Amino acid sequence: MTVVKEACVDNIQDAINAFKKGADRIEFCSNLEEDGLTPSNYDLIYLKKSISIPLRVMVRPHSNSFNYNEDDLIQMKETIEFCKKQKFDGVVFGCLNDNNELDLNKIKDLADFAKPLNVIIHKAIDLTSSPVNSLKKLLEINNVNGVLSSGGFKTAELGSEVLKKMICISPNDFEIISAGKITNQNFEILHEKIDGKFYHGRKIVGEL
User: Fold this and answer.
1) Domain range enclosing 185
2) Mind listing the pLDDT tens digit for each residue in 79-126?
3) What's the structural domain count of the chain?
4) Does residue 30 sit in helix, strand or coil?
């Protein structure tokens, strides 16, 4: 089984370094100190010309919450529209309601709008009361292709049992992307535990 290592970066130099060090894919954002926000169009265009691996784009207009109003959604659609025109590999977002459960209507609306891009729901799913139950609901939405999760814990190691369960209940073509302090140092041990196909981290191919 081929394993995909996705490097999460918030600047062009780190993205190029990750590409050179063997990352299979890049998730590009800005402001990783705020857990990642929407990057600039300029950086995205530059990066697309600089690397030859798939590029997924964080769509997150602010870090106040994952509860988005109409203005936020318009902004998110503008980013998604740009990503469609530039033919990126995918977009990464997540919407929660007032109860910190997935806002399935907003997710479905954005996912439908994003096609033909890959749509990944990010770690907002870990804030819900049950990532496994939330995943089951997402699997009913046709245009969602995967989730990024630590199984509801701070690290992939702590959430490994939940991640294994999430992989178990997902169709083969649905990506469960394990995340949470996964580095080139602990990758092999975690892969043995989780036995997934997709892994994500800032240092997944080492220091950048």
Assistant:
1) 4-201
2) 999 999 999 999 999 999 999 999 999 999 999 999 999 999 999 999
3) 1
4) strand
